[in-house]
Structure formats: structure tokens, C-alpha cells
Amino acid sequence: MKKKKTPIKAKPNTSGGICDAAMAKAKLDAGQYKEAIELYKQLLKQADNKEWRSALALCYLKRAMPLAEKGMIKEAMVLWENYQQNAEPPYQSYDSYIAWLLQTNNAAKVTACFGRLSAQQLDEHYPNLAALLGLLIVTEKPELEAMLPADSQFIAHLVSVRAALAAYRNNEPEAVEQALKQLPFRSAFRDFRTLLKAALLLPGSTDQAQALLTKIPATSPYYQAGKLLLATTHDGLALVDELLQCEQKPRQLIGTIKKISKKQLELLDVLVKQKDRLSDKIKFNCALQYRELFGEDLAKAYCLAALATYPAGQRDFNKHFGAMDEFEQCRLMALNYEREEDFHSSDYYWQQGIALLKKQGESGAFKIALIMRHIARHQPSAEEGVEWLVESLDYDPDSRETYLKILRQYEQEQEETELYKQWLDRGMKAFPQDVDLLAQAIKAATANKAFKKAAQYAKNLLKIDPVNTFAKQVLFTSHLAHARKLIKTKKFHLVEKEIQQAEKLTLGKRYQNQAQLLRGFFVMLAEDKKQGLQQIAEAAEKMNDGSACGYFCVIVEALSMGLSLPSTLKGLPQPPKNYQLSEQEIGRLVQIVQQYYGDDKSNTAVLHQALEKIKAIIKQSIKQKIVSEQTLLTLAECLDNIGYYELLAHCAKIALMQWTKPIWLFYKFYAEVGGRADQCSSFNIERLQFNYARARDDSDHRTAMRIKRFIDEYYEDKNPFLGGFFDDFDDEFDEDDEDDEDDEDDGFDPFAGDSPMDLFDHLPTAVFEKLQKKLQDIMKKSSPERVINTINKSLSKPIDVSFFMFKPDAFVALLMLQAAAELGIDTGVTGDQIIEFGEIEEDSKPPSFPFF
Amino acid sequence: MKTPYQILEAPEQASDAEIKQAYLQKVKQFPPDHHHEQFQQVQQAYEAIKDLESRTQYALFTVPEADFNGLLKQAFASGPAPTISAEQFEKLLCASVDAKTFNIAASETVTAR
Q1: Which residues contact A668 (CB under 8 A, 6 or more apart)?
Q2: Mean pLDDT within A293-321
Q3: CA distances from B85 to A196, A228, A255, A397, B82 (A)
Q4: Which residue, A307, A339, A608, A801, has most beta carbons within 10 Å?
């Protein structure tokens, strides 16, 4: 239905047409041509003004062009004709108008226009129209030729084009070339020439043909032909992409040229129809239906993978490719859950898979081991990961990587030293010549001050890898430590040999000087005091930049050998008063401290005493604020490592005067309480929580982790069972600061009120109390995640951490059941009963937990 | 997406030695200096299946990829570009004429009367 026109009325004439003319001009300038046309028409009714008529013409023209672009050719033609009626020649966009006439097959008007078209206009003024006419004449409208000026270059060039095409038909490429050469660069058939040249280059020089075709501009009438020809040079996905963009007719033509089969065309039709809604289901069905095109294996692999997002295809999959074996089903489910990062569910399916593999006996053992190691990677806690790794060795005992992983884990856990030793022994037995295991053994022996043993391992390692720097360093440290011990016990006759052995290890100048320093002590104590002191002074000077570092080394050595400091230092040069460490010296000092600490981690007392002697110098130096934040941070980390909190607190204090990084406030509070989280005030913990969020915002993950660990320790001390749960509730951790204290007061009493705990009502009080005691033991010893994993083994449907949050009473009941299982008590209650009870209690409001 | 076996053109039942042989051949074909990308692909493929452990790992933990484009690539894989006959060329010209063909840019020169 046509819209009723609502002509814009001209305003009553107050001051002639001036007001309306201004308004019309404004509309024209604003691009509101429709409104402008109405206004100018009204104005022209009042008076035939040349300027207004010209403006009206322009409005018509401006409206015509966008309509043509939208494909509203007839409307555009009418508007252009209106333009022509109101404008003076020469007319703009006349060539476009002719093109529209050609498109709408308006023969009469075309003939009239062409009758007025001169050769010059066709050849020079309307190149785009000429190019279009050329294409139309050689394709569907040859009759146009007769209407065009016979004396034009266009007609002359058309002769060459026809000659080229005829030669092409007669399979005379050279004649084609000759004919094409007659077409100059400015010819209306320029792009035709490019196109035909490209066609001639096929199939031999595809690259050249493609390069030629890309030269046809997008505005050329031959552009589309170029695209189609280009499509014939493609295959695979590129060809599909091109074909999907084509209309049916050209698609079929390319199909014929490319010898595409009926089945392939059929698939293309499906893809065209479903272009914008190619769902997983359609793709899955295509893969099944056209599997002869894809190949059986590829189609099967695709469908298998697609089942993850289109599980409803399982039946069809089984029908066409046969049912998957049970293990494969579990494997795919596990991998799908892993992809979604739902490791709890993936573990469940891996375990199902393991159960199936166990039935295969020996042949499945290796796979079981690999799966267990795979599961270990995704465990929420390192200790659970280690459990899986340990179990995996039952199925594949020859995995040195697994031994190493287990050792590295136990190495980090200070309370597991016994386990570490056991596993190191096992590893060494299994792989006595393994470089990495030997390195672990060296570390362990050094940590236990079993220097002889460490040296022996290092020697073994150097036999296998003679340039192993780590082994050399260990051996060097071991020789020096032994030399110190010999000096301390006054077995002087053995010292020189030990020092010489250390010196034989080619480790560099610094190490040689360190050996020389010890020799100085040996000479001082055993041979000639004066000469010894001189040797010490020389070695200390050579070893270090600046006197404070050398002085520090001398103190450490003296203290390590149990010597009296005053008498030793008396004959040695000391740092001058008001001595200040340069930034470089601070860096060097940190290196020295780290090296001594690395050599013997248990002997921090000596380092503390030595630092005590130079702390005034350090304090004075950093107070001057000449040290960069990074250097001060390195010093702070070093002091943190060795637990020298007094100086650490000073560093933090100085740093906070200049910088605002969250780590400094952490170090301030941390050092103030001597690294003991339980001594920290709740107020400072709150401030640290804020700083933790800041560190995360700044992407300073290292600091964030450091603060988090400290806060975790604080809360673990308050409630050992809940502490670990922070790991899973980071977001909540940032919020609800205001409620913390209230929450702590609330406390959660799992034994209060109606709950699934009622299932245990039938138990005698003594048994119930026994279970409660055991339950508390479990809570203290295990992380919640570990407990949940253990519980899950007895449930038909696994639970996750959120269960603990939202159904705490049911969770405690499950813990009771676990306690009973560990004590070997049959309560008559099953895990599934508890879960069922928990689900009935759905309406119950989740209790408030401390810290959540 | 090709599997490591396809990249190295080695059968799935190939032994360590056969896989290494296939790998070395591919490295010859795609030396790192001239075919960096292909070489990397070959290298990764070899790492994925070089020994029993890696092959078992690959078989167990590789998530099959639902690559529909890969299917289409396979289905429409064809040989070299075809010869275009004069008849096909002319048909192609005819097929290229559509509404867009007539949408020519108006010439700047305006002399029509």
C-alpha cells in the first residue's frame, strides 16, 4: 500500500519567499532531499526562480543515486528524469541513467539515448558506461552494437575483441594474443583483455593468472567475471567459500568447470541453504550423509568430536560407525569435561576408564599409569597429585619423570622429609645413573649436612656429566664445609688437602678467592697469625666489591668455624665509619648471603649474627634513598628468605616512604610479627586483604600469592579446616570485609538442628562420640578437596565443593560416614541416603560461613 | 586439522624407527631455514608420536577436534586449475552479468545534452 503523501506546506508568505527558500536550502544542506523537494516545488509555484529550480534538480539527482545503489532502479530513473527536466545540460550521471535503462530493458529510451550519443562521448566521457556496453555486447545484448556510433574507437576495439574470441574458439592462443594487443590501455575492453589473458594462462600458470585477475578493479563490470574465473583456480575450503558466495547459475558453471560431482553440488546446496544457521546438528548430519565425500575415517573422527556439542547424535553415530567401546566413551567424556575445566567430573570418567582398563590386565597397565599421571596434573592440591603419581608407579614403575615429580613435591613440603628420603632412595635404586636424581640426592645430602655423602653423589654425577656446574659447586661447598669442620676440630694436617681439592674444581675466580679466604684462616690458626690475617684481608678484598661485603664474608667464615669474632677482626681492616654501600654493593651482598644460605640452609643463625655486625651500614645506606626499588626489593626478599626480620622491617619502612607497591605493606606487617601469621592483628589482616586485591589488580601475581598465603595461614590458625577453602573462593575473599567479624562470631555449628545427622541417631553415644573425634581428626589432617574426593569414591553421584557450601549439614554427615569407614564401624547409613536427605532439605537456607 | 601421523605421512602402527625415518624425510623436504612454519609443524608432529609413551599419550589425551572446515577441505580437494575452454569462458562472462554489473560509477565528465 502506498503511503499517502503529506506535502510540506509553505509558510504563509510574510516576507515574500525568503523564509521558505531559506528553509528549503537548509533542508538541502542537511541532506533532507525529500523535504527540500516539496519546499522547492511550493516555492516554484509562487515564482519561477532559476536558483530554486536548479536546487530542486539537485535534490532529485541526490535522491536518485542512493536509490539506485539500493537496487530501486525504476525509482531512481524517475528521479533522474525529474532532475533532467529541471536542470540545464550538461546532465550529471547520464551514464548511470543509461545503465539503468539497459538494466530495465527499456529499449525505446535506450535507443533514444544512444541516438544522441557521440563517438567522443562514448570513447572519452563515459568510460564506465563503455566498459559495461562492451561486456553486454559480447554476452547478452549484441544488438546494442548497431545503436552505437560506428566511427567510435569502441566499435574498432570490439572488432579486436571478437577476433580474440574467435581465435580462442579455434584454439589459436597466439592469434588471441595478437588480437588482444590491439586493445590499448584506455580501451573500454581493458579488463576484458586481462580476463582473457588470465584464462589463457590456465592451467599452466595459475599463480600468474591469479595475480592478473586481482588487478581487475571492484568497480569494473568485469569484476564479477574475474571473481568467477579466480574461483576456478581454487580448491578445498577456498573453493567452497567462493561457491557459497555465488548465485546458483555461476555456482553450477564453476561446478562444471571444476568437474564437481553431483553429490558435491548437493552438499553445496545444503550449505547454501543453511548458510547462516549451520548448527552442530546440521554439520553432524552432513558429515554422516556425505561421508563418502569426506572419507570414512575423517567423517567418523569429526562425528566423534562433534558428539561433545551434539550428544543427541550418539545413536546415529553408533548406527553408522558402530558402537564405541566403553573405555572410549569414558575417555571422551573425561576430555570433554577437561575442556570445560570441570576436573572433578573429568576425574570421575578417567577413573571409570581406569576401572575398565584394569580388567584388561597387563595390557592396560601402561595406559592406567599415564591416565593417573594425567589426573595428577589437575588435582586441587599438590599432595593429591602426588598420591596419583605414586599410584601410577604400581602400573609403570620405570618412569623416572614420575620419580622426579614426586621428589620435587616432597622437597617443597618441609614436613614430608621422611617421605622425601624414602622416595629418593627408591629413585636412586631404580635409576642410579640418572643425572637429575643424583642432583636431588646431592641437594638432600647437603641439606642434611651429610657433606661426604653429597660429595660422593657429586663425584658420581661428574663422572656422568663432567661439566655439570651444580655438581662442581656442591663438591666445592662440601670441600670447604669439610675444611671448616677440620679447622674447627683442629685437624689442621688435613685442611690444606681439602682446600686444594676444592680449588681443583674449575668454577671461576670467585670460588678460588673463597678457597683462598679459608686458607687464610687456616694459616692464621695453624701456622702464622700475621701471614694468615694478611691472606684473609687480601682474599676478602679480591672476593668482593667494597669493604663491607668482604668484611661480611670474613665474619661468616669466622662464625662458621666457631672463632672469636673480636680477636679475628682485630687484625683486619674494617669498613670506615659512615661507610655507605653503593647499589652495586647491596646487590653483591645479597648474592653472598644467598650463596651462604644455599650452601647450608639450616645455618641462618650465623648469617643473622654476621648481618648484625653490618646492619648499621645497611640501614644507613638505604636510608639515603639512593637505592632503587628493585634493589631494595631484592634485599628484602633475601632477608625474608633467611628470616632476618629486623632489617626487613627497616627496608619496608624506608620503602613505604617512597613507594606504594602492596609488597611493602606486606613486608612491614610480616616483619613486625616475625613472619608469624598468627601474631598478626585482624586489623592488619584486613589491610593486607585490601593489598592482596590491589596486587591482583596490578597483575602482581607473585605478591598476591605471597599475601594470600600469609592470610591463609592466619585463618588456618583460627580454623584449620576452613583455611584451605580460600583457594576456591577468591572472589568472595575480596568482598564482605565489613561482615568478617560478625561472621567469625556466627560460627557454623554442624551439629545443631534437624539435619541428615539425624540418620546417625540410632548410634550409641559412645560410638557417636568416637565418630565425632575421628571426624575432627580428618578435618585437621586433610584438605576439604581431599575429603570430598575420598567421599566421592563411595557415592553413586559425585559431589563437589559447592555441596559443602550449600549443604554443610549433609556434608558433615558424609564426613561422619567417612570417619566410620576409617574406624571400621558399620553405621547402617549410606552416602546416597545422606545425599537424598540433603536434597529434601533443599529449602533450608545456607548457613553463614566464616569468611565467605 | 591434520594428525601427526598425517603430517609425517606415517601409518598409525608405525614403529619408533619408521616414525623417525618419516620425520627425517619431512625435515629434508621442509628445512627450517626455508620452510619455518612447515618445519615447526613437522617437529611438533614428531614430538607428539616419537615413542610409545608419546603415542599412547596422544591416543589417550588428544581431544578430537570437530573441524567441519577440515571436512569441506577434504571433500572439495581437487587437482590443479582446469583448462578454460572458449565456450566456458563465454558462459562465465554471461553468468557474471547480474544487477551489480549495471551499478556503474557515474563519470565525472558531464557533457550529455
Answers
A1: A649, A652, A653, A656
A2: 87
A3: 11, 14, 14, 69, 9
A4: A307
Contacts of A128 in chain B (CB under 8 A): 104-107
Please judge whether A301 and B64 are an interchain contact, meaning their C-beta atoms are less than 8 angstroms apart.
yes
> What's the CA gap between A661 and A683, in Å, rounded?
19
Q: How far apart are CA A126 and CA A95, in angstroms?
A: 6
Nearest alpha carbon to residue A522 among A540, A552, A495: A495
Closest CA to B92 of A814, A190, A688, A225: A225
Q: How many percent of chain A have pLDDT more than 90?
A: 30
Q: What is the pTM of this model?
A: 0.53
- Chain A CB contacts of B100 under 8 Å are 224
Nearest to B74 among A250, A280, A295 (CB): A295
Closest in B73, B81, B91 to A203, CB measured: B81
Question: Cβ of A301: how many Cβ atoms within 10 Å?
Answer: 22
Closest CB to A257: pick one of B60, B70, B82.
B82
Give the mean model confidence (pLDDT) for residues A18-31. Answer: 84
Q: Per-residue pLDDT averaged across A691-719, rounded? A: 85
Most confident of A448-457, A597-606, A828-837, B37-46: B37-46
The length of chain B is 113
* pLDDT tops 90 at residue A637: yes
Task: Please list every residue in chain A whose beta carbon sits closer than 8 Å to the beta carbon of residue B69.
Answer: 237
Q: Are A575 and A551 in contact (CB under 8 A)?
A: yes
- In this structure, how many other beta carbons lie within 10 angstroms of the beta carbon of residue A659? 12
Amino acid at A51: E
DSSP A734-788: HS-GGGHHHHHHH---TTSSSSGGGGGTTS-HHHHHHHHHHHHHHHHHS-HHHHH
Contact indicator for A236, A255 with CB cutoff of 8 Å: no
CB crowding A372-411: b at 16 or more within 10 Å, else e:
bbbbbebbbbebbbbbbbbbbbebbeebeebbbbbbebbb
Average pLDDT of span A238-252? 87
Phi, psi of A644 (to 5 degrees): -95, 85
CB A541 within 8 A of CB A592: no
Size of interface A-B (CB pairs under 8 A): 212
Mutate to test the interface with B, among A80, A84, A103 (most CBs of B within 10 A): A103
Cα–Cα distance between A12 and B109 in angstroms, integer?
42
Among A83, A117, A212, A298, most B C-beta atoms within 10 A, so best to mutate, is: A298
| Mutant choice from B61, B71, B85, B88 vs A, greatest count of A C-beta within 10 A | B71
Distances (CA, A) of A756 to A389, A416, A744, A786, A828: 36, 37, 25, 22, 14
Check CB contact of B66 with chain A, cutoff 8 Å: yes
The neighbour count for residue A90, using CB atoms within 10 Å, is 13
Contact at CB, A309 and B78, closer than 8 angstroms? no
B108 CB near a chain A CB, below 8 Å?
no
Which residues have a Cβ under 8 Å from the Cβ of B4 and sit 6 or more positions away? B44, B45, B46, B48, B49, B58
Collapsing DSSP to helix, strand or coil, B112 comes out as strand
Q: Do A367 and B61 touch (CB under 8 A)?
A: no
> Residue A788: its pLDDT value, please?
75
Name the residue among A221, A237, A335 with its Cβ closest to that of B72: A237
What's the gap in Å between the CA of A119 and the closest CA on chain B?
12
The confidence score (pLDDT) of residue A679 equals 87
Write the ipTM.
0.75
Q: Coil, helix or strand for A91?
A: strand
Q: DSSP letter at A601?
A: T
